[in-house]
Amino acid sequence: MIKYPDRIPLASLPTPFKKLEKFTVPNFDGTIWIKHDELTGTEVSGNKVRKLEFSIAHALKEGCNTLITCGGIQSNHCRATAVIGAKLGLKVHLILRGQKPELIEGNLLLDLLAGAEISYLPQKDWSGHEAFAASLQEEYRGRGDKAHFIPTGASDEIGIWGYIAAWEELTKDFNDNGVDPEYVVVATGSGGTQAGLLVGAQIQKAKSKIVAFNVCDDSNYFEDKIKTDVSLWKQRYKTEFDETALNIKTLEGYMGPAYGEAEEIVFKTIANLAKVEGVFLDPVYTGKAFHGMVSELSLGDRGRLQGAKNIVFIHTGGLFGVFPQHKNFQFD
């Protein structure tokens, strides 16, 4: 039995677990299952809300009334934090990477509607965003408030708990559907979801391999980030765990031009899945990872998902990221 720290029930759980009925992949005669974490609730907050259940519980236990966090202009995590802060009566201050855009849309629009305070930090200054967050904490302290800083994506030793718990939920999904998947696939950007799945799977002695497709950075970055976060998790919660045994598998080659920028084939994949199955991906995270998964499956024995008969794709959300990139979709 896993002993969890304080947690606020924010997500609508369990999320659905369903197989794709009509979507086909060349050279693949197995089954693709979708774990629909885009349906966690809180205005389609996706995977972020699972992690925030623990991060915000920690902040409240510390007596904080303000949350500071950071991400890109269209950050799903920042939007989730803003919405949850509004629900809980907490002040939220977002540090967003880049310049304030002329057109306010997508996640940024929801941030503002939810009442979040926003500071824009240019890309050239982004390396100092944590120091900037610390200065904001001092400002809030001077006003009589106490602010807790949540890192990008809530991906740290606290946020890891979200997907350790999710793996328990997945285990029940597998059992209920009589499936023992060879692979569980996820997009990875800040590493927290990937880390939690890896830890949860190892604790449960699962046979499934966790495979992540990076949407930024590279495999070495995620190797180091995950091992660091898991080591800090062990220290904070005094947990016995062998992080050297983690099988961290991050498949490169599908990031596209840059973080937040996708190739034409990704937009085609998004449109095809929506048309065939009514499942909506986004061009920043899930679209790239799903395209990567399909591409590797279509290679058969030459691909990096060899032997897959049942494969699970974790749909981590991101719907609002579609709207700012609507011009990249082609319609007849």
Number of helices: 9
Q: How many β-strand stretches? A: 10
Instruction: Note the run of SSEs as H and E.
Output: EEHEHEHEHEHEHEHEHHE
Helical fraction: 25-40%
State the CATH class of the largest domain: Alpha Beta
Give the CA-based shape. globular
What is the level-2 CATH architecture name of the largest domain? 3-Layer(aba) Sandwich
CATH topology of the largest domain: Rossmann fold
Strand percentage: 15-25%
Query: What structural class should be given to the helix and strand makeup?
Result: alpha/beta
Query: Would you tell me the overall average pLDDT?
Result: 96
The major pleated sheet works out as:
6 strands, mixed
Distance between the termini: 54 Å
The strands making up the biggest β-sheet line up spatially as: 1-2-10-7-8-9
Could you please describe the fold and organization of this structure?
By secondary structure, the chain is α/β, with parallel strands linked by helices. It folds into two domains: 17-46 and 157-328, Rossmann fold (3-Layer(aba) Sandwich); 48-154, Rossmann fold, CATH 3.40.50.1100. Helices cover 37% and strands 16% of the residues. The protein is built from nine helices and ten strands. It has helices at residues 48-61, 76-88, 106-113, 129-142, 161-177, 192-203, 219-237, 264-277, 286-298, and strands at residues 17-19, 31-36, 66-72, 91-97, 117-121, 147-150, 183-188, 209-214, 249-251, 310-315. The strands form two sheets. A six-stranded mixed beta sheet has the order 1-2-10-7-8-9. Strands 5-4-3-6 form a four-stranded parallel beta sheet, sandwiched between helices. Helix 2 (76-88) runs parallel beside helix 3 (106-113), helix 6 crosses helix 7 (219-237) and helix 8 packs across helix 9 (286-298). The mean pLDDT is 96.
